[in-house]
Specification:
5-stranded antiparallel β-sheet
Length: 62
């Protein structure tokens, strides 16, 4: 995980540095973020948590 103090949460917009793609976190399974593209179509994918950078939080940080 890069660029954040907290791991990504469902609904967050992230950059998957492993693929170079922007995505939205749709699920987290056993600590692995499940992502879908932010624009266009394409299959969802699982990302390496160490390669995911949170760009925008779905909910504000308390």
């Amino acid at each position: 995980m890069t660029g954040s103090d907290r791991p990504p949460e469902i609904g967050d917009t992230v950059r998957d540095h492993g693929t170079g793609r922007r995505a939205v976190v749709t699920d987290i399974r056993r600590g692995i973020p499940h992502l879908r593209p932010t624009m266009g179509s394409g299959p969802p994918w699982d990302a390496d948590p160490e390669q995911v950078e949170v760009l925008e939080r779905a909910r504000p940080t308390p």
